[in-house]
Amino acid sequence: MDLLSGLFSSLFKEAEGILDTTITNKEELQQVKNELQKIVNDAEKNAANQVTERWKSDNLSDNKLSKNIRPMSLIFVTVIFVIISFMDGNLGDFKLNESYIPVYQTLLLSIYGAYFVGRTITKIKK
């Protein structure tokens, strides 16, 4: 989701720059910027809702593969990434290459964030 947010944010900034050079009335400019921000926010919300609906659909399915494809993919990719990152240049003394650290940080934040926020929302809805 961060990717979409970053994409929409950069598009909004580019559009803002164009508006700043083409609209001279400050009130109109602010109104258009507000409308653009609303469009960006709605698009991000719509994208998140579509992902949630796909997850719900998969969980309601009778097909075991559709229910388990995300967890299995997550486990597979995580195991492969850990193996590669630990084996990368570590035949002697172990030292994790610093280029892997931001990836681990992002993965941990995403996984824990999705799990705990998702669990909290589920509990609140019940």
List keywords for this structure.
126 residues, mainly alpha, 2 domains, 4 helices, 83% helix, flat
Helix and strand arrangement:
Elements: H1 2-22, H2 26-60, H3 64-87, H4 101-125
Helix pairs in contact: 1-2
Give an overview in words:
83% of the residues lie in helices and 0% in strands. The chain is mostly helical and 126 residues long. The chain folds into two domains: 1-60; 63-126, no CATH class. The longest helix is centred in the middle third of the chain and has 35 residues, at 26-60. It starts with a helix and ends with a helix.
Quick recap:
83% of the residues lie in helices and 0% in strands. It has 126 residues and is mostly helical.
Could you tell me the mean pLDDT?
75
Strand content: under 5%
Radius of gyration, in Å, reads 21 Å
> How many structural domains in the coordinates?
2
Low-confidence stretches: none
Shape: flat
